[in-house]
């Protein structure tokens, strides 16, 4: 049975000009909501300008401006449902209206299943949070963000705030589904970054910080500072080893030793 907020949202979609399908209207709504939310969260002026232009391009696709005026009310419905937790709101709406593409492997996972999986995968998260103040989560196929929402809910149930104790890097290939994931992850108050890209090829097409990202950075700084420092130290050590090898090859060391080093 659909959540009451989902039912209300779907009913609102039916009030739009019938020149567009519910799926088209829904995807435009998600793009507009993404642009509005990501613009406010972005620390980059050029990204803010681009998001504003994309938002206005979406507005231009509605000849009847009464349709545009319906968007804030729908946005309020979505935000209230998502922020309260316990629901994959956008994913449920998408499933309800048939906006998911099975050909791309898009299927709606019931929230209860995601929540169970989240609780099973947390492991010693509490101990890690107590030790370093937060955990990091990588979601390489985020979909509409349902699994990330369930993880945040599970952590919150243990007494940890998503904005303070978790950093999420969520990647989604589909552009329209990327919009959905950003809306939900950001609105739920989860710190992190949502990326439109390919986890296999490591290509990135777009990215946006969530609204809670500054809160996290203010408390902990860069969540990957230790990993970056370790990578810098490893690169430095490798360069020093190469320099020693080059020096040896230029020295008067025995020919056999030089041959071994050059082979390595």
UniProtKB/TrEMBL annotation:
Gene3D superfamilies: Vaccinia Virus protein VP39
Annotated ranges, domain DNA methylase adenine-specific: 104-203
A GO MF label: methyltransferase activity
Source domain of life: Bacteria
Keyword Manganese: no
Record key words, sorted: Methyltransferase, Transferase
Protein's GO biological process: methylation
UniProt family annotation: Belongs to the N(4)/N(6)-methyltransferase family.
Protein name, entry field: N-6 DNA methylase
Source organism of the structure: Paracoccus mangrovi
């Amino acid at each position: 049975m659909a959540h009451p907020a989902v039912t209300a949202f779907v009913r609102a979609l039916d009030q739009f000009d019938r020149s567009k399908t519910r799926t088209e209207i829904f995807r435009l709504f998600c793009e507009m909501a993404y642009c509005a939310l990501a613009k406010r969260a972005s620390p980059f002026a050029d990204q803010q300008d681009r998001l504003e232009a994309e938002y206005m391009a979406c507005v231009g696709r509605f000849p009847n401006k009464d349709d545009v005026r319906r968007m804030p009310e729908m946005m309020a419905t979505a935000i209230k449902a998502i922020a309260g937790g316990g629901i994959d709101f956008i994913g449920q709406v998408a499933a309800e209206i048939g906006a998911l593409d099975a050909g791309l492997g898009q299927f709606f996972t019931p929230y209860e299943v995601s929540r169970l999986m989240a609780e099973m995968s947390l492991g010693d998260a509490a101990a890690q949070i107590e030790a370093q103040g937060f955990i990091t989560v990588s979601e390489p196929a985020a979909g509409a963000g349902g699994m990330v929402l369930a993880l945040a809910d599970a952590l919150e149930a243990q007494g940890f705030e998503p904005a303070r104790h978790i950093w999420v890097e969520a990647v989604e290939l589909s552009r329209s589904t990327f919009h959905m994931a950003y809306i939900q992850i950001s609105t739920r108050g989860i710190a992190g970054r949502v990326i439109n890209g390919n986890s296999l090829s490591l290509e990135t097409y777009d990215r946006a910080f969530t609204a809670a990202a500054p809160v996290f950075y203010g408390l902990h700084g860069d969540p990957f500072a230790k990993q970056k420092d370790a990578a810098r130290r490893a690169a430095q050590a490798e360069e020093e080893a190469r320099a020693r090898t080059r020096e040896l090859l230029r020295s008067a060391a025995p020919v056999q030793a030089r041959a071994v080093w050059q082979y390595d």
